[in-house]
Design brief:
The chain has a single domain, classed as HUPs (Rossmann fold), CATH 3.40.50. The chain is of the alpha/beta class and 147 residues long. It has 5 helices and 5 strands; from the N terminus they run E-H-E-H-E-H-E-H-E-H. The longest helix is centred in the last third of the chain and has 18 residues. It is 40% helix and 20% strand. Strand 4, helix 4 and strand 5 form a beta-alpha-beta unit. It has a 5-stranded parallel beta sheet with strand order 3-2-1-4-5, with helices on both faces.
């Protein structure tokens, strides 16, 4: 049976940390990772869904184990729709662990699907693109954070 991990919403293609999480999942717990970008037209993020899709596809070009999709609505409903084996969440720091653990429990109760929490390799600086953008605004070198 193909084990599908759904990595929804939080995936940031513009930094190395999330790429590390997907690679770890593929090497240990998943046969396939679906990176799903929630589309909420009420909210305007720093990057459009199309820009995020394009950047993610560029990172995983030619890797048939990674799919990039968009979805509307609840992540838990989408997970059921695609037959996800489990949800994949990244833990940026020990400080975030409690929140992510609570989210995992809520998702399990709503779907019956377990969540795998993976801590990013600290050397890859699992920081968000908003932090990178802030550093760029001060003309800092950010190459070490980018794929």
């Amino acid at each position: 049976m193909n084990k599908i991990a759904l990595f929804a919403g939080s995936f940031d293609p513009f930094t190395k940390g999330h790429q590390d999480i997907v690679n770890r999942a593929l090497s240990s717990v998943a046969d396939e990772v679906v990176i799903a970008i929630g589309v909420n037209y009420e909210k305007k993020g720093m990057f459009s869904a199309e820009e995020r899709q394009k950047a993610i596809r560029a990172v995983y070009q030619g890797d048939s184990r990674v799919r990039v999709e968009t979805y509307e609505g609840l992540t838990t409903d989408y997970a059921k729709q695609i037959g996800a084996s489990f949800l994949l969440r990244s833990v940026r720091s020990v400080k975030d662990f409690e929140f992510e653990r609570d989210m995992a429990e809520v998702n399990r109760r709503l779907t019956g699907i377990e969540t795998v929490l993976l801590l990013c390799d600290p050397q890859l600086a699992c920081i968000s693109s908003s932090v990178v953008r802030e550093l760029l605004s001060y003309h800092k070198d950010v190459k070490e954070f980018l794929p």
